[in-house]
Every structure is written in C-alpha cells, then in structure tokens.
Amino acid sequence: MTPKVTQNPTIDVAKLPTGFGRLWTAQTVSSHGDGVTHAALPLLALTLTRDPMALAVVTAAGTLPWLLFGVLGGALVDRWDRRRTMWVTDAARAVLLAIPAAAAALDVLSIPLLSAVAFLLALGGLFFDTAATAYLPDLLGRHPAQLERANARLRGAQTAASGFAGPPAGSALLALGRSVPLLADAVSFALSALLVRSLPAAPRPAASARESLLRQARAGASYVFKDRLLLGLALRPAVGNIAFLAVETVLALFASERLGVGAFGFGLLLTAEALGGLLGAGIASFLGRRLGTGTALTCTATIEGLAILGLASAPNPYVAGLALAVCGAGMGATMVLAPSLRQAIVPAHLMGRVASTSRMLAMCAAPFGAFLGGWLATAYDIRTPIYAAGGLLLAMTAVTATMTSNRRVEAALHMAASPNGPGRPQSENPLREDAPALQQPTEVPAC
C-alpha cells in the first residue's frame, strides 16, 4: 500500500516568514557577485595562460576544501550558531577578494594566487552553504511544501543573479579593469553579511559533551551511507560534478577556439544556461507533483546527460547555447527537489553534517572532473571531455534510478512526518512568531 504523507493543515504553505525574505535577498545579492566572479575568474586565468592543465588547477582549487574539511565542517556548523557562521563567513570573503583585486591592479596576478583565492572562497562557501542549508528548515518548521517553495525561490534567484545577470556583468566589468569584477563581488559579500546578521538566531542543536568532533562527523557520514535514498541523492551530484567540472574546465577554451566567441559571447553562453536553470527551478514543484519526486529526479538527470552530448556536437554558438539552456533546466529542477527532500527527512541535529557529507561527496569528485577535462582535452580533442561527461551522466542516472524511486521517497516522507519519525514535528518552528500550535495532522495523498 502506498504510504500517505501527513501534513499540518495549520501551516500556510503560500506564506513564507519575513526572515526568509531577508535570507533570500542576501543570497541573491551574493549570488550576483558570484556570477560576476564565475565569468571573470576563467577569463582572468586565460589572460595569464592558455594551458588547459593550468586552467584545471584554478578550477580544482575551488573544490578542494570540501575534500579536506567537508564532514568536519558540517560537524562544526552543528555546534555553532548558524546565523553567525553565515555572516562572519561572508564578511571574511569580502575582505579576501581585496587581495587579488590589488594584485590585478598592480599587475602581479598569477595562477598560484588565483588558485589560492579560489580555495579560500570555496572554504568560506563550505561553512556558509552548510549553515544556510541547516538554518532553512529551522526557519520554515521543516514543512516539505514550504521547503520546496523556499528552495525554488532561492534557486531561481541564485540562477538569475549568478547565471543570468552576473556573467555578462563580469565580462563587461573585466573590460573596465582586471580588479573591477573582484571588487564587485567583495561588495556583494559585504551586503550579504549585513543582511544575514539581521536574521533571527536559530537555536543551536544540543550536542553531547562527551562526543568528540570527529565522532560527531563520523555519525553524520554514517547516516548518509546507511540510507539508500540519501546515498542516492548524494551520488548523483558526486558523479555529476565529475562530468560538469570536466566541461567547465574546457568551456571557455571550447567557446573561444571551436565556437569562435569572445569574452562577451562566453558570458552569454553562461547566461543561456542560467535562463534554463531559472525555468527548471520554476517548474520543479510541478514536476514533483506530476511525476513524483523520485521519477522527476531521474528525468532531469537524463535531460542533463543528453543536453551535454548536444553541447559536445554543437556546430555553432546558438546550438551550444540551447544545449546549455536545456542542461540548466535539468539542473535547476534537480537543485530544488533534492535539497528540499533532504531537509524534510533529516533530523535537525544532524542537518549540518548530512548536508556537508552530501556536498563533500559532490565536491570531492569535482577535482577529478577538472583534471579529467584538462587531460582529455590535452591528449585528444577539446570536444572529448564534453562527450565523456554526457556519457557519464547517463550512466549515473541508470545506476541511481532505483535508489531515489518514488516508493523510497514516499516512505521517507511518511516516516519523517510521523510522531516518532526522525525529524522535528512540522509545526515546531522556533524562528517564526506566527508558528501555530500543534494540532492533530490529517492525511493527504502523497505525490
């Protein structure tokens, strides 16, 4: 018999708390700065070298913090004040970006410096993203529909800001000077820090004083690996990052040498991907309701693989832009559905560790993708890593389809919503003044 998911009817799904608006604004501002840097960094690297392996070093450096500190970072976030972690991290990243900006202005910018900056920015991103992921369920009371709605808004804004508006702005600002896009991102981090600091503080999950940090980190990782649904949700972005980083490493070079586009054209290609991502985030909830979350995730992963194969064979920038837009749509929907599901079923005291473990698996795989892309482009052809990425995505989809099936998703939501489930009751929301009193839940059909 198909499990029923219990939901609290007193929660207004259409109404998100005021605090979410400030969080949404902060992440939108910061994402716009990230989009500027996302376009500017590879273009800055191209002004220093045309070696694919050197470009791969810069790309890989931005993924190494998750390999080195991923699980421990999640354990620390579960001990720290999550709001404070977010605003301090963004303030530190604002200061950090002044270093390469000054180096660019003084004409002493180098690949090692860009790699170090990419590493430290990603280290800050580790703590900010993990804290934000753990903070959101507290803000929304772990209600699945509200989490999906909030994540759709966050993902849509992030895609629009970092992909649609940011890359062309980064390319344009780079024309004004090599330090200008870096300073713009620094300002965005500073504004984000101020907004996050105004959010209500979340209660810090109680941790056992007898448990060491390493033991707590191991408990979070074990929780992911022992649950086939969570493991499936984690494996898809892990394998996907190998593919996407292989593409990202050579994309600027591919656009320049095979598609014949300059810096502004490269920014437009990234914008096309972002437009698709915006569409995908917008229709994610519809896909989840229509197909079921598990089936929707399998479909979006298949679309991503086919779109990357289309990019590899693109004869001109227009076809390449369409392929990137389709791939972005699949990614946008996936990045709404998967995190929302994870936030709804994972206990609050483990949220930071589970989120960081899942993200660590994805980010640890990314350096392999970056170097794989550089090696395949050097040894064979610039299109080879893109073809390999498309094939890898399709193979991953086939392997994980049963791990994230509708049946597993429905069972996990049913358990999380039950009184004895692993999560907090959905009406318990310490950050909302309008949180309703606990009432007897009613059954509604699952997707």
From TrEMBL:
Localisation per UniProt entry: Cell membrane
Listed transmembrane segments: 53-75, 87-106, 233-255, 261-287, 318-339, 360-380, 386-405
Region (Disordered) location: 416-447
Keyword flag Transmembrane helix: yes
Residues annotated as domain Major facilitator superfamily (MFS) profile: 1-408
Principal place of residence: membrane
Record Gene3D superfamilies: MFS general substrate transporter like domains
Topology with respect to the bilayer: Multi-pass membrane protein
Database matches in InterPro entries: MFS_dom, MFS_trans_sf, TM_effector
Pfam families the record matches: MFS_3
Keywords for the protein's UniProt record, in alphabetical order: Cell membrane, Membrane, Transmembrane, Transmembrane helix, Transport
Name this polypeptide is given: MFS transporter
Organism: Nonomuraea indica
